[in-house]
Structure prediction request, 405 residues.
Amino acid sequence: MKKTLFVLTSEFPFGVGETFLENEVPILEKHFENLIFVTQNATGSSRIKNEKIQCIELGKINFLNRIQVFFSKLFYLEIFDLIKKNKFSISTFRTSLYSLSRGFSIANKLVELNQKNLKNGYESIFYSYWLDEKAIAIALLKSKNKKLKAVSRCHGWDIYEERQKSNYLPYRNFLFKELDKIFPISESGKKYILKNYNVLNSKIIVSRLGTRKLENSSKKQKTSEFHILSISSLIPLKRVELIIASLSLIDNINIHWTHIGSGPLESEILKLANEKFERKKNITYSFNGHLSNQNVRLFLESNQIDLFMNLSETEGIPVSIMEAQSAKIPVLATNVGGTSEIVNNENGILVSKKYNPNDIAHVLTNYIKEIETIKTIKRNKSFSNWENNYNAEMNFEAFISLINE
Prediction:
């Protein structure tokens, strides 16, 4: 039977977020007769130019969806579980209410889409990119129709409860019971789920993300400066200010630092960089703002980068590190989340999350002074790690095989 894959996203293919899905789309469209993105926010123009791929925007929660929650046994089971775990508060109550309201709203829309799809002779597979209210929606569908296929990825913030202000992620037990499969992107995520929830091991399958191979470029711009690159949103958990503080402590080594990415802390980070580097003749820097995935790849293909840095407080497995390794760039990163699964001291430098600017400056200085042979070995091992573990073609083909089972 022909298949339609419904991919539920926050904004992709609109907006600027979820850029890592751009690597997945070309492989998804090869394997399904219909590929339909169902997104919460369809503001702006679509990044997908293929007219065969449909995009549908989800509506807003209405009053009836909120009322529907109070007639749901699932809602009261969730509240009881919160009380039992001593997590009940106004905040968690609101989160559980909103999430299920949103879940019902999305599920109602998906019922219509599924009925239309079946009439056209296609089997429906529902794939939520995040383990959030969109996953709740497809779990609601699955609970009513066991023949449906419903799967979800999960990354970082949607796995680790401690990353939430209320230390709570809603309807986990329901999701792990009803969804056919859940795909954390790291072994760390899988271990966390199995440790903290009553869920079948066979349902939780690590499915790594990946990036596409870069074009070979023999015209990379190489300067006399040691070139460091970072790519991230400018938000607190990315700790870009720690990169600035660390570089400001290094003397007598010429360094150029490039940052790609924007966010709410942009003006604050720029001001800090100006203050810290104003009198540092050996440090130059550039902020390139937000770049599309295509332009990030062009930058990597055109510039000789000596080291990639990621000093996040918490992570899943950053796609930016995968991109760096595909360009043969060693990575200095904090040992958080699943980062140790992609960075180690053979292909880069793994440091403690607790390292302060002095510690990082010391590690950086030692690496820059290493002989070129050591750096070349790290470059080659960095690329080898990408090729064996984070190649998009390989990983997404395996993912499609799993959801088609």
Notes: Residues 2-210+392-404 form a domain with the Rossmann fold fold (CATH 3.40.50.2000). The CA atoms of residues 227 and 306 lie 5 Å apart. The radius of gyration is 23 Å.
